[in-house]
Each structure stands twice: as structure tokens, then as C-alpha cells.
């Protein structure tokens, strides 16, 4: 790309506008030659980041795995990054906005779609970026994420299989509630789920929009892969989260509350009730 060229094509933005926020959508992007995404630049980024924001492990995982069972790869951060073609690993650099040049890249990329987001779900909140490096054939197990997310495939290829976000069997209410109380993003996988997912091929130059909490898993192609994930939240995301927290409390009281509804339903009542309860708890805690 040149300095004047947009990262997302006009066609990609039109596709996103038609799909956002509840439908997965494939988008074209022009980020693959960006100077901040060379191996040398990424090594500098990894060195500049808080070590706790670099997570990595072996890449030869099954689709479903308990996070406690994920094996370490026995290597250091830079060794994992520099030899990703051959060391059978999966790595994520989390919250790249902690480094100014990458914060600028994240903000510039999201600015191109901000008018679309604003029209539909309002203000773009909590802009965060993640860079994923993975070895040939590496698997990201079945999980859900709590943000609006566009994953841009920069080098190599992946297949992302995305599942409906509103299926109680694929991601039970209890899993959502546990997640919001600090649990892991990985979900329990059953082989009979497979037919309910849609597999999306992601060669370099393609991106995919993934709806909030739509379960998915990822399999790397035959070459090492580099992807950039650009994420944001919306008021809807927070209302869904607060409704889940209220439901967790109700469930502990022996009730079986209905799950929050998907967009465009706003989950106002439960969200307001949870905010009022949390405020009252804080007030009581001060006395
Ligand atoms: Fe994900």
C-alpha cells in the first residue's frame, strides 16, 4: 500500500455496512506490505511490549482443549517469533496499542470503518489490537471473544470456522457467565458441532469480520501465518456483559434466567438492574 491508499477497499466497506454487527463478512484489505508488519519490526514490537501481553504455546492442538492442558513450546518469546516457520507454535502479541506506532496503525485502520460502526452501534469504544503468529498447521481452539473483531490475514493463510452467536448449545449461558467472571475464552467442543460452523478461507489480503461472541476456531494453512486483529466494543457489548453478570447472580439464587438477546435488542432492563446493583454494592462497601 502507499501512504495515500486506504487499507479497506470501497467494496469492503460496503460489505461491512451490509453485514455489521451480526453477520460474518469477508473483506479485502491492503495491509500486507506494511513496514510495521515485517519480521524485524515484529521482533522490535515484542521486545517493547509488557512480557505478560505475549502469550504463546505449541500449535498442534485439538479443536477443543481445556486451557490448563495447553502445552508450552519450551522456547523464549523472540525464538518463537523468529523461527515461527519451523517451531510448531502459536503466538499472540496482545494490546499492541501500548506501542505508539502500532496504536497509530490500529487507530488509522479503524478510522476507515468508524462511520459505519457509528451509524449502527454508536461510538467505537476500547480500541485494541492483537497480532497472531502461527506455524504451519497450527490450531486456535474453539472459543469466543468479547469484542467486535476484524482479523486481517497479512501473510500465509488460515481457515476460520465461525458458528452462530445465539446458539445456547454451542456456547451455553453458564459459559458466557463464567467468562465474564474471569473465566477463559475457550469453549467446550463437541464433534457434533462441526456441521453448524461456516468455514471461511483467509488468504493473505483477505480479512473477516467476526460478530461479538460468535464461537470460532482457526486452522493455519501450509505456511507460517501472520494476522492482525483490530477490535472495538460498543454500548451493546457492555449491556450484554452486564446482563450476563446479572444472570450469574440470579443463577446463584437458584433461578434459570433467560439469556440476553442479540443485536438489535438492547438488553436495557437487565443492564440497568446490574449497574444499579453494582452501584449499591459499592456504596455499601464504603460504609
Ligand atoms: Fe478469536
Structure described in brief:
By secondary structure, the protein is an alpha+beta fold. Helices cover 32% and strands 23% of the residues. The termini are far apart.
CATH-level-2 architecture of the largest domain: Sandwich
Mean pLDDT: 94
Spans of at least 5 consecutive residues whose pLDDT stays below 50 are none
DSSP helix count? 8
CATH superfamily of the largest domain: Cupin
Largest sheet, in brief, is: 7 strands, antiparallel
Structural class: alpha+beta
Query: How many domains, in number, for the residues?
Result: 2
Strand content: 15-25%
- Give the CA-CA distance, first to last residue: 58 Å
Side-by-side strand order of the widest sheet? 1-9-6-11-4-3-2
Got a strand count?
11
Shape: globular
Q: What would you call the quaternary organization?
A: single chain
Bound molecules: fe (ii) ion
CATH topology of the largest domain: Jelly Rolls
CATH class category label of the largest domain: Mainly Beta
Helix/strand order, N-terminal first: HEHEHEHHEEEEHEEEEHH
Radius of gyration: 19 Å
How helical, in percent, are the residues? 25-40%
Topology diagram in text:
Elements: H1 10-19, E1 25-28, H2 39-48, E2 54-58, H3 77-82, E3 89-94, H4 100-111, H5 114-121, E4 125-134, E5 139-143, E6 148-155, E7 158-162, H6 173-180, E8 198-202, E9 206-210, E10 216-220, E11 225-233, H7 235-252, H8 268-286
Antiparallel strand pairs: 1-9, 2-3, 3-4, 4-11, 5-10, 6-9, 6-11, 7-8, 7-10
Helix pairs in contact: 6-7, 7-8
Bound molecules: fe (ii) ion (FE2).
Fe (ii) ion is lined by residues 143, 145, 216.
Amino acid at each position: 500500500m502507499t501512504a495515500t491508499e486506504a487499507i479497506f477497499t470501497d467494496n469492503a466497506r460496503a460489505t461491512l455496512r451490509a453485514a455489521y454487527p451480526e453477520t460474518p463478512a469477508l473483506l479485502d484489505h491492503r495491509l500486507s506490505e506494511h513496514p510495521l508488519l515485517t519480521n524485524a519490526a515484529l521482533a522490535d514490537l515484542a521486545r517493547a511490549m509488557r512480557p505478560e501481553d505475549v502469550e504463546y504455546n505449541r500449535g498442534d492442538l485439538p479443536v477443543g482443549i481445556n486451557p490448563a492442558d495447553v502445552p508450552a513450546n519450551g522456547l523464549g518469546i523472540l525464538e518463537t517469533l523468529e523461527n515461527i516457520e519451523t517451531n510448531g507454535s502459536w503466538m499472540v502479541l496482545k494490546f499492541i496499542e501500548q506501542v505508539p506506532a502500532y496504536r497509530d496503525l490500529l487507530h488509522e485502520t479503524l478510522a476507515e470503518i468508524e462511520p459505519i460502526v457509528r451509524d449502527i452501534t454508536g461510538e467505537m469504544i476500547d480500541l485494541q489490537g492483537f497480532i497472531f503468529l502461527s506455524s504451519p498447521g497450527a490450531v486456535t481452539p474453539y472459543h469466543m471473544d468479547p469484542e467486535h473483531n476484524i482479523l486481517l490475514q497479512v501473510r500465509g493463510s488460515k481457515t476460520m470456522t465461525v458458528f452462530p452467536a445465539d446458539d445456547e448449545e454451542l456456547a451455553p449461558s453458564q459459559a458466557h457467565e463464567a467468562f465474564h467472571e474471569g473465566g477463559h475464552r475457550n469453549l467446550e467442543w463437541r464433534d457434533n458441532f462441526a456441521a453448524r460452523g461456516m468455514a471461511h478461507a483467509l488468504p493473505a489480503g483477505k480479512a473477516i469480520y467476526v460478530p461479538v461472541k460468535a464461537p470460532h476456531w482457526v486452522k493455519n494453512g501450509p505456511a507460517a501465518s501472520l494476522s492482525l486483529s483490530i477490535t472495538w466494543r460498543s454500548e451493546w457489548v457492555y449491556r450484554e456483559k452486564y446482563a450476563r453478570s446479572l444472570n450469574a447472580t440470579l443463577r446463584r439464587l437458584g433461578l434459570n434466567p433467560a439469556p440476553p438477546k442479540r443485536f438489535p435488542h438492547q438488553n436495557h432492563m437487565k443492564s440497568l438492574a446490574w449497574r444499579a446493583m453494582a452501584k449499591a454494592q459499592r456504596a455499601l462497601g464504603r460504609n
